[in-house]
Amino acid sequence: MRSIDEAAPLAPISLLQLIWLASPALPIGGFSYSEGLEASVESGFIATETEASDWLSNQLHVALARGDLAIVAKAVAAWRCGELALLAPLNVWVLQSRETSELRLQTEQMGQSLLQWLRNQATASQPQLDACAHMRPTYPVTFALAASATHASVRDCLLAFAFGWAENMVQGAVKAVPLGQNAGQRILARLANEIPGAVGHAMQLTDNERQAFSPMLAILSSQHETQYSRLFRS
Known about the structure:
- This protein is an all-alpha fold.
- Helices cover 65% and strands 0% of the residues.
- It has a single domain (45-221), classed as Urease accessory protein UreF.
């Protein structure tokens, strides 16, 4: 019998569900956050397309791949197996990895908004929804619940999560730097090429290898909380 994580054609319904979850149109507020990028523009670290591209590439590999993507991989498997006791520690880890109030607000707000969206779908069971609500869910853990209802592999779920992040961040860069739409598409193309490698790395991490160490991002986020003029909530 073929494993769900072996290479196999993705059923159209599962593919569409993943595209839906990755879409910036999903009403969870992802477009309102820049994750420190706006503060980096204000501080002079990002002023060009190349600098924005390098910044987001580094964030993908240094932050996302070593933290949230690894959490999504573990959480998808836990939701599918009904191992609810494993999910609370993963959720706590995400909260502990947020070093500023605005970054914690982002993951909690997006998690809660996605949970409310799931309540209007027919994909998650009531016990799953109740378990998710009980832990004050973060976005990676709630995304894993939504993605676990598809018949997609864990790898495909992570690809969708990472591409959704990339689209939101590129649009943030287009607005904040600012950049033209073609520049944004070039950055997105670079990230799309690098996402599979980041996903592969995340899937290999054990619980002891997972980490969240981005001190400059934390500093910039702290500065952003009191930044006088800003477009984004983080």
